[in-house]
Backbone:
């Protein structure tokens, strides 16, 4: 999943990253706790995308945006927390 299009949507205190492929949609939702903190709530990947790296691509985009914009991620979502544990090089983007 090296060249995927992931869009970011925010409204009020909620946001999400969305990856669409062949009519299916994977998402990672988050809550905006403060200008410096986002809580990763949930990652949902449809069966058609399982095993394709869609979930990891969503988390990587979250990490990239956190670094670029100067906020930290609280990994409430078990998938995001598991990805954090598997990528120690991402530690600077998380608040655990």
Residues:
């Amino acid at each position: 999943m090296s060249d995927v299009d992931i869009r970011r949507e925010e409204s009020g205190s909620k946001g999400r990253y969305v990856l669409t492929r062949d009519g299916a949609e994977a998402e990672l939702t988050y809550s905006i706790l403060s200008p410096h903190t986002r809580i990763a709530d949930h990652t949902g990947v449809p069966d058609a995308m399982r095993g394709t790296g869609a979930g990891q691509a969503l988390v990587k985009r979250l990490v990239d945006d956190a670094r670029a914009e100067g906020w930290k991620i609280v990994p409430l979502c078990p998938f995001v927390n598991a990805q954090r544990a598997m990528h120690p090089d991402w530690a600077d983007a998380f608040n655990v």
Q: What stands out?
A: The first strand starts at residue 6 and ends at 11. Residues 73 and 94 are 5 Å apart (CA to CA).
